[in-house]
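User: Some background: our group keeps a shared notebook of sequences we're curious about, and every so often someone picks one and asks for a predicted structure to add to the entry. Today it's my turn. The entry only has the sequence so far, pasted here. Could you supply the structure so I can complete it?
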Amino acid sequence: RNLGTMSKIGLLTTGSAAADFVARKLGDEPTLRGARIHPIAVLAALTTYRSGRGAKSDATWTPVGKVIDALDAAFYQTFRAIEPTGKRTMLALDVSGSMSGGQVAGVPGLTPRVASAAMALITAATEANHGFVGFSTQLIELAISPRQRLDDVITTVSGLPFAGTDCALPMTWALAQRRDIDVFVVYTDSETW
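Assistant: Of course. Here's the predicted structure to add to the notebook entry:
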């Protein structure tokens, strides 16, 4: 919460001892695990800090590359704190055009598309038996690996030629394909027909 302020007042600058200290703290996996910080909270901090301006204020700052890199690494490290369910999971991402607009939790740059890709990536990294599909008025299987970076997953689900949103497609498709699925996780901005 205070990274922007620390940069604004000149404490965090490129090459400063404070930036080195913050980067070390953000990279301390036992601390991250013990604090049970959710990956989306880290992603929101990364998105806000990288933007150089406050989400809930008019504060501005110059982001420090080392802090951005540490937040990015912390995002992926926090995946390890999530406990798997062991269920066969279908991760269904709404890929319609509306997913690229708006903000999640009031965080500029954290669109429904980014948040859904992040949540699906977190789940895929946690659950061994999972599959990805993208849907709108059609459904397509997606070749996404839990080892991919978030930017790659966002690119994969962006620009697909789809229109409206039919949230029932993942379930009807799985039934038609005779897929054994224990859990359907549908990520959508709820702008459906």
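Suggested note for the entry: The two ends are 38 Å apart (CA to CA). The mean pLDDT is 91.
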